[in-house]
């Protein structure tokens, strides 16, 4: 069992090997299902010139947004960036490069990268600035654009449960981009709420097999909500 045990006990060990200029693929949607502690460890390490691939860039003081304060992110590939004023300002000031990508295309870029598929054709984005400079091909009379897949040096994800072999179970909408991101990193680190012994997870309920996961750490999550709305 020891040779297959992927559990680490410190965030420093979890993110060991990250370096300036790396591409980081991050799971999460808004603040739901984000690897809070792993993001904070990147901030602590002060790693810079990062390319970050994620649905969005958190908020000003939480999630991936904390990496903007010390200008650790050089480029972000995302589908939505509307909740972060600092992000907007850095974009307008030319400090950060932004590649806006349709949400489904972004998910498929991760999935295809993890599957070893270098590119795919999609109709999404044709006739818009998204298609500029990309190859166009017709299938059954409809134009499609060629999108390249994405991989990164690190994938950081959040799961509900893991066993020591790295098999993962996600919970409800916190699943979001995490399963695709998990496959696309050369080193995939999962921050989880609970770690169980091998054999305790029902095999048919496992969402991401441990073959994709290199390290597992038990996190302590704040689970902040972006906007709390109640009735008057």
TrEMBL record:
Which GO terms label this protein's molecular function in UniProt?
succinyl-CoA:3-oxo-acid CoA-transferase activity
Locate the coiled-coil region(s) and give their ranges. Answer: none
> EC number(s) for this protein?
2.8.3.5
What would be one Pfam family of this protein?
A: CoA_trans
Keywords carried by this UniProt record:
Transferase
Transmembrane stretches in the record are none
Q: Which domain of life is it from?
A: Bacteria
Signal sequence range: none
UniProt record similarity statement: Belongs to the 3-oxoacid CoA-transferase subunit A family.
Please name the PANTHER family in this protein's record.
ACETATE COA-TRANSFERASE SUBUNIT ALPHA, KETOACID-COENZYME A TRANSFERASE
Protein name per UniProt = Succinyl-CoA:3-ketoacid coenzyme A transferase subunit A
Record organism: Pseudoalteromonas holothuriae
Q: Which gene encodes it?
A: scoA
């Amino acid at each position: 069992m020891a040779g297959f045990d992927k559990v680490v006990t410190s965030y420093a060990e979890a993110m060991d090997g990250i370096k300036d200029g790396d591409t980081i693929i991050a799971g999460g949607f808004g603040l739901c299902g984000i690897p809070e502690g792993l993001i904070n460890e990147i901030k602590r390490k002060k790693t810079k010139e990062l390319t970050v691939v994620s649905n969005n860039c958190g908020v000003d003081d939480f999630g991936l947004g904390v990496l903007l304060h010390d200008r650790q992110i050089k480029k972000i590939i995302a589908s939505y960036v509307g909740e972060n004023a600092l992000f907007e300002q850095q974009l307008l000031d030319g400090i950060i490069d932004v590649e806006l990508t349709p949400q489904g295309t972004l998910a498929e870029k991760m999935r295809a990268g993890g599957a070893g598929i270098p590119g795919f054709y999609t109709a999404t984005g044709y006739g818009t600035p998204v298609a500029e400079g990309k190859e166009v091909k017709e299938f059954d009379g409809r134009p499609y654009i060629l999108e390249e897949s994405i991989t990164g040096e690190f994938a950081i994800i959040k799961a509900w449960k893991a066993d020591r072999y790295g098999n993962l179970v996600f919970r409800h909408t916190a699943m979001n981009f995490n399963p695709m991101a998990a496959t696309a990193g050369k080193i995939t680190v999962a921050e989880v709420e609970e770690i169980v012994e091998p054999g305790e997870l029902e095999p048919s309920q496992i969402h991401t097999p441990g073959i994709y996961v290199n390290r597992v750490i038990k996190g302590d999550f704040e689970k902040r909500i972006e906007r709390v709305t109640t009735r008057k």
